Every structure is written in C-alpha cells, then in structure tokens.
Amino acid sequence: MQHQLVELGYGASAHGGGTSVAFNLQPRPTGQLLIGSSRQFDNRERELDLPLLAQMLDRARHFVPALATLNIIRCWSGLRAASKDGNPLIGPHPARRGVWLALGHEGLGVTTAPATAELLAAQILDERSPLAPDAWLPGTFVSTGGDCMKATLNITVDGQPLTVPEGISVAAALALTGDPTTRQAVNGELRAPFCGMGRLPGVPDRRRRPSGAGLSDPVPGRYANRKEPR
C-alpha cells in the first residue's frame, strides 16, 4: 500500500451525533498499516469498545479483504475536540487579547488546515477573508461571563497555575499559557495536540465531546505536563 484509502462516509461521520465507524487505511513509514476509524460522542470510558472495534475491522475487511491475513500489533483510542455544532473555532479568544484560536476540528484538522490557516491569517492581518468568519468565531462557545461556562477550574500546566472556564477544550486551555503547544509522539517527533484533545469536563449537557476514551471528572489542582512523552 502506497496511498491512504478513506471511505467517503468518513467526513460525514465527523459531523454525526452517534456511534459510527468509517473505513480509513493509512500506510506508515515503518511498513505497518493504521486502520480506522470509529467515533463515539459523550463517552467517558477509557477502555477500548471491543464490539465497536470489531465493527471497524469488519468494515476495513469489506474494502480490503487481504487485511484479514494480517496480525494486529496494538489498538488505541483517543480524544477528539469538537464544538457543539461540529464546526471548528477559528479566531480571537474573546477574553484574552492577542490569543488566537484554531481548534475543535474533530477528526478533520489536517484536512481543513489550509483553509483554517487562510481564514486565521486574514483575521490577524485584518484583511478580507475568503470565508465568512462569523460562523467560526470562538466567542460563539467560549463565554466571557455568560451562563454557558460560569464555573472555573484551577489547573497547572508545566508548573504554571491557570484558571480556565469549566468546559473549555484542553487545547484552548493550553493555548492560554502563551507557549508553543506540542507533545512528543511515539516515534519521537513533536506533534501539535490540538486535533486530538478533549475538553476539561464539567458541562456535559452544554458541549458535545466525541471520545473513544474520556478524561476523569475535574478536581482542584489538576496537573498537566506537556514535556513528558505520551
């Protein structure tokens, strides 16, 4: 395999509202194959959903029958950050001057990165945008004092105390530190986590959180360290 194969329904499932599977096969530089994918919304469980995993593999074998002859090395699940209406949040933070956000793309962050960059650059430079920016403004969901996010959480990121609104995405919370936000992938490369991180829970009825594994309930003094490999 030399090219990625993606089922047409993959994009549609990113904006769904239930549990779904869609075929996605990616060849890796190691010669291995990455097979996906599944989506679960509002799920706090950390463990793999084995019936859902079986559906995902059956779907993959439907498109590429030869996959049935291969051995599975490992399985994993992760968090995807998504907004309430499924659209990414792109634009200035409503409460932090100089902080610009581009997050909540769910599983389509890489696919939509060029348009996101063009839209964000136009806003920063105060130029005419190729897209209407209002639909993507973070102020739609990141409240500065409305009833959407009244409560706050006290967390620590890389030793820096931070007070964030309850329900804010983890990516947005990390952006508030003002430092470059990266993490180390299993192959040692640095990767930006914005595409695959969930939110600090606390308002489950206010925002949709797609997840194959969930964050635990928030507690005072939650600590995050971006320097440690994951």
TrEMBL record:
Gene Ontology molecular function: glycine oxidase activity
Pfam families: DAO, Fer2_4
UniProt superkingdom: Bacteria
EC number(s) reported in the record: 1.4.3.19
Keywords, ordered alphabetically: Oxidoreductase
Coiled coil: none
Domain FAD dependent oxidoreductase: 23-122
Entry's Gene Ontology cellular component terms: cytoplasm
Region (Disordered): 198-230
InterPro entries registered for this protein in UniProt: 2Fe-2S-bd_N, FAD-dep_OxRdtase, FAD/NAD-bd_sf
Protein name: FAD-dependent oxidoreductase
Gene, per the UniProt record: thiO
